[in-house]
Amino acid sequence: MIVRSLNDIEGTDRHIKAASGTWESKRIVLAKEGVGFSLHETVMYAGTETSMWYANHIEAVLCVEGEAELTDEETGETHWIRPGTMYLLNGHERHTMRPKTDFRCVCVFNPPVTGREEHDENGVYPLLTEEA
């Protein structure tokens, strides 16, 4: 059994801050735990814009605080994401988040991330694995 708090992660290598300065993420469960998914708490900052494309992962996101506009870059469709709203990138959709307030969410990735990934020029995380 693993028990871990967000406070335990603060300031460790599981606490990732984007080079762009637009978001930060606390990686609660990573690939090295061997459970088939990763779990993160992410905060995207008000007034920023982040374009992403998880070509190698499926991501589910549950908003727990704040508001953001989500744009599906493939269809142009927009959605207003508020606390209690979930979105699932089950088709590897290219998407852009535009937080109107600081936006805090809980994210699940499959396959799990290692914590070492960085978005490339297309907003993609590479598919990294952990050595057993």
TrEMBL record:
Give the SUPFAM superfamilies listed for this entry.
RmlC-like cupins
E.C. number = 4.2.1.108
Reaction(s) catalysed by this chain's protein: (2S)-4-acetamido-2-aminobutanoate = L-ectoine + H2O
Q: Which InterPro entries does this UniProt record tie to the protein?
A: Ectoine_synth, RmlC-like_jellyroll, RmlC_Cupin_sf
Q: In which pathway does it act?
A: Amine and polyamine biosynthesis; ectoine biosynthesis; L-ectoine from L-aspartate 4-semialdehyde: step 3/3
Could you name the domain of life of the organism this protein comes from? Bacteria
User: Would the keyword Lyase turn up in this protein's UniProt record?
Assistant: yes
One family from Pfam that matches here is: Ectoine_synth
The task this protein performs is described as: Catalyzes the circularization of gamma-N-acetyl-alpha,gamma-diaminobutyric acid (ADABA) to ectoine (1,4,5,6-tetrahydro-2-methyl-4-pyrimidine carboxylic acid), which is an excellent osmoprotectant.
Q: List the PANTHER family.
A: L-ECTOINE SYNTHASE (PTHR39289:SF1), PTHR39289
What family does this belong to? Belongs to the ectoine synthase family.
UniProt protein name = L-ectoine synthase
Its source organism is: Streptantibioticus parmotrematis
User: What taxonomic classification does the UniProt entry list for its organism?
Assistant: Bacteria, Bacillati, Actinomycetota, Actinomycetes, Kitasatosporales
**What gene name is listed for this protein?**
ectC
